């Protein structure tokens, strides 16, 4: 029964989102409005804000206390974050300049979005050192070893620009649109009303129960379609999904790349969803209409009404409220109120969300969100306040007391210039290369015993030995050979950088990266350096190419490849 209830709860939450956001579509009939023509995304911002714009804002953490706050080790109460950002979607660039004022100290932090990269300057690590306990933050020595910029890169980050283009065109991302379509199809048409001047969607408790029952059966009967829609939505949205953020402000979503190939993840997720549905049906755990009815009694709808004027500049308004009930006892409730009036370029919108809940263990939770946006021409002013509080009813102990207050001013700026740093192997490192990861699988040389090295005609032995890799390149231990050639070799484990110095020539190489530099000039080798055991291996041809006076003689002797490294 628990599995049935969990699935019904999940579907009902999705339905709530579908009702709240799908109801904001605009067209001429209810069916087309919610099932076929989901084009409006209920964001008041005109498309120009998602193209070229600037934003100035401030976020204040006015309260952050309680036992849960103490457990995090973060010292955030009283923090003030000033933001100055620029967006140029045509060039796929965004820059955010932050000044974080925390406990009497000011920390400048810069972040950039450039194509498929998110770039941070390492100054944010200084902020982390102040915020976190000493054992959790980076040490001064680690900071000194890091280059100026840290970045993450991936195709899913590049998809941000595709989503921004939808907002710019005032369209809903197709993956989200089709998923909402599926959920909204479960709502019986009798709950829609249309007049020449107004569209209305209104549900009562009976309609809520009927819709949940329809949805449960719809997922089972259309499992392949449902699985594909969810998989498409998840794989296209990356780590998080935005349902219409401010285009260029502190409220824009944060993203991190997935470690999985999106196509493979999509196909695997689709198979998993279908399999779970089949298993639940076979085991008798799949929820029935009776289960949906039981959940609707515990998650009771008090009000759901969305009204939208069909006249230009008319009011759109959503009012929704649920109560949480367990064994006849009311535990809490959820309220959503939202309204918008005016045209795209001249509008006012308000949103208020309130949650209060008493958990069985005696923890009382409450939270509120209130936002206001005023758009006049090419300027938008926004304000948001978020509060959260958790109190143990038995002891009176406060576990969390949080308040965030944010303000921003966005302006369309057709002449905006966004400058992002030019990354090189010397001034940057990919965070994925320095993040803690499981030990890599050992590299198995293709033919380690078939390569003999000589240095000026004398046998030259290394441990581990040289080998020929899968690309038919001879790989040699970097330190052993370079030091034999009179070079100084240094290793930086933080960004996995190998520095080779001889005279006035400085060569910098990076593990698993084909790009390297010579006296600051970036070049490329055809095979990247790798680690075998605890030794760095580089292609021998690279050594001959960069070391002045070094040449190679290759011969075959009794089935063995003999490489003579000549320095004179």
TrEMBL record:
Residues 455-553 form the Copper amine oxidase-like N-terminal domain. InterPro entries: Cu_amine_oxidase-like_N (IPR012854), Mao_N_sf (IPR036582). It holds the Pfam family Cu_amine_oxidN1. Keywords: Signal. Residues 1-25 form the signal peptide. This is Copper amine oxidase N-terminal domain-containing protein.
């Amino acid at each position: 029964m628990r599995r049935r209830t969990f699935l019904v709860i999940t579907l009902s939450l999705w339905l709530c989102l579908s009702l709240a956001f799908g109801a904001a579509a605009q067209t001429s009939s209810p069916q087309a409005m919610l099932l076929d023509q989901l084009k409006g995304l209920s964001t008041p911002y005109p498309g120009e804000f998602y193209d070229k714009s600037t934003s100035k804002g401030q976020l204040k953490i006015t309260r952050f206390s309680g036992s849960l706050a103490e457990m995090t080790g973060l010292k955030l109460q009283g923090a003030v974050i000033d933001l100055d950002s620029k967006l140029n979607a045509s060039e796929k660039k965004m820059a955010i300049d932050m000044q974080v004022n925390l406990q009497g100290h000011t920390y400048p932090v810069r972040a950039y979005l450039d194509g498929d990269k998110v770039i941070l300057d390492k100054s944010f690590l200084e902020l982390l050192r102040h915020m976190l306990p000493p054992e959790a933050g980076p040490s001064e020595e680690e900071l000194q070893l890091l280059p100026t910029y840290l970045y993450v890169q991936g195709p899913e980050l590049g998809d941000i620009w595709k989503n921004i283009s939808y907002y710019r065109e005032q369209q809903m991302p197709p993956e989200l649109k089709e998923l909402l379509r599926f959920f909204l199809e479960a709502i019986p048409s009798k709950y829609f009303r249309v007049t020449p001047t107004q569209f209305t969607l209104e549900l009562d408790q009976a309609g809520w129960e009927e819709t949940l029952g329809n949805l449960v059966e719809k997922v089972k009967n259309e499992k392949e379609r449902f699985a594909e829609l969810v998989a498409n939505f998840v794989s296209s949205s990356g780590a998080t999904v935005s349902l219409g953020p401010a285009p260029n402000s502190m409220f824009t979503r944060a993203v991190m790349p997935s470690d999985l190939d999106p196509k493979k993840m999509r196909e695997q997720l689709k198979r998993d969803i279908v399999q779970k549905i089949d298993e639940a049906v076979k085991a008798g755990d799949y929820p029935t209409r009776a289960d949906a009815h039981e959940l609707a009694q515990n998650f009771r709808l008090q009000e759901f009404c969305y009204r939208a004027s069909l006249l230009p500049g008319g009011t759109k308004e959503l009012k929704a409220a649920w109560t949480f009930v367990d064994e006849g006892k009311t535990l809490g409730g959820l309220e959503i109120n939202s309204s918008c009036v005016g045209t795209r370029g001249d509008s006012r919108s308000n949103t208020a969300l309130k949650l209060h809940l008493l958990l069985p263990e005696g923890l009382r939770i409450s939270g509120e969100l209130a936002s206001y946006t005023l758009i006049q021409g090419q300027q938008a002013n926004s304000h948001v306040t978020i509060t959260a509080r958790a109190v143990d009813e038995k002891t009176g102990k406060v576990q969390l007391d949080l308040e965030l207050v944010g303000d921003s001013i966005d302006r369309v700026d057709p002449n905006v210039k966004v400058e992002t740093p030019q990354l090189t192997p010397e001034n940057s490192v990919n965070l994925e290369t320095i993040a803690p990861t499981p030990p890599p699988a050992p590299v198995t040389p293709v033919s380690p015993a078939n390569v003999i090295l000589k240095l000026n005609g004398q046998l030259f032995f290394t441990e581990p030995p040289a080998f020929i890799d899968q690309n038919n390149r001879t790989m040699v231990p970097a330190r052993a050979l370079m030091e034999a050639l009179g070079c100084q070799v240094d290793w930086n484990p933080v960004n996995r950088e190998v520095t080779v110095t001889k005279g006035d020539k400085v060569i910098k190489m990076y593990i698993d990266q084909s790009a390297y530099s010579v006296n600051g000039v970036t070049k490329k080798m055809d095979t990247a350096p790798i680690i075998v055991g605890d030794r760095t291996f580089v292609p021998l041809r690279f050594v001959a190419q960069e070391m002045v006076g070094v040449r190679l003689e290759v011969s075959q002797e009794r089935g063995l490849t003999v490489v003579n490294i000549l320095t004179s």
